[in-house]
Specification:
Layout (H helix, E strand, L loop, with lengths): L1 E7 L6 H8 L8 E7 L4 H9 L5 E5 H9 L4 E8 L4 E7 L14 E4 L5 H12 L8 E4 L3 H10 L4 E5 L4 H5 L3 E8 L5 E6 H6 L1 H16 L7 H8 L4 H9 L10 H13 L15
Parallel strand pairs: 1-2, 1-3, 6-7, 6-8
Antiparallel strand pairs: 3-10, 4-10, 5-8, 5-9
Helix pairs in contact: 3-11, 9-10
């Protein structure tokens, strides 16, 4: 039995991994898959890959592309979620801001620099025709930090996955003033190069297991009820999320990586572009 340490956000997207662990599907293929939750998101996982704390990450495409270009010795082995991520744009319940346009020149709460919440603030600014040079940030670590920051006013708005934050909107902690979808597939599976070189068969087996699980995941009996229960979501919200979400069993297209690089370059988030073929394995 060989061990693989994997990281991901503690969100509904990753239930297929947990079911395979619980049902010992990985174990039956000789894989001891150790799951690590990263509530801090993409930036925290990029650091963990660099520090060899994890071998594999289920990570946002744009944040990981940025970190690879900046030297992260890891590669994309597959798309995980091929549909865009819907980022809700949130303010505190008692905030004076009512619309997205009200947020121009205000402070965005971000989990850390290089995270999805950081990069999507640039994407949103571009969509709103704001100057990205005027963006201001407050690092808050994770969702709990965002609640504190928006409540006490150290930041003005926070971008996070629409359905993950929906309970905080429902209970009056946040107000959502709009949404901002990613212009590309959201989650990819990334693996450290050292692991790809030394354990290629193990990674191949891991992908075979998770792809078999996700291929018909949405058709599983009572899956919406299980998701709602595990992630403390309303059933109707989970059903809406399932309807717009597609898992992938294929490698990300080089044209998609070109598009991501072009967008990041145009926003001055990266200062160079590379051959997209070098970002995948």
């Amino acid at each position: 039995m060989e061990t693989l340490k994997i990281g991901g956000v503690p969100e509904h997207f990753n239930l297929p991994w947990h079911l395979c662990i619980e049902n010992k599907t990985f174990e039956n293929k000789g894989i001891n898959l150790e799951w690590n939750n990263f509530p801090g998101g993409t930036g925290a996982m990029c650091k963990a890959l660099r520090d060899k704390e994890i071998d594999v990450a289920i990570i946002l495409a744009e944040g990981f592309v940025k970190d690879m270009i900046e030297g992260n010795p890891s590669r994309i082995v597959q798309t995980y979620i091929e549909t865009p991520l819907i980022w809700g744009i949130h303010v505190g319940a008692k905030s004076k801001f009512e619309t997205i346009n009200d947020l121009k020149n205000t402070r965005a709460a971000i989990s850390r620099y290089g995270s999805g919440s950081h990069l999507m603030a640039y994407v949103n600014a571009q969509q709103q025709s704001w100057s990205t040079k005027d963006l201001k940030f407050e690092v808050i670590g994770n969702l709990e930090g965002a609640v504190e920051s928006l409540t006490n006013g150290t930041a003005d708005y926070f971008m996070w996955e629409h359905f993950t934050t929906k309970p905080l909107v429902d209970n009056g902690t946040f107000r959502r003033v709009g949404d901002c979808p990613t212009p590309w597939p959201c989650f990819v599976i990334a693996v450290r190069e050292e692991v790809l070189k030394n354990k290629p068969e193990l990674i191949e087996q891991m992908l075979m297991v998770i792809n078999a699980e996700t291929e018909n995941f949405k058709q599983k009996e009572n899956i919406s009820h299980l998701l709602a229960e595990r992630y403390e979501q309303k059933l109707e919200d989970i059903q809406k999320w399932l309807a717009i979400t597609r898992w992938s069993q294929a490698q990300i297209k080089e044209e998609t990586l070109d598009e991501i690089q072009n967008q990041l370059f145009n926003l001055d988030i990266i200062n160079t572009k590379v051959n997209s073929n070098t970002l995948i394995s």
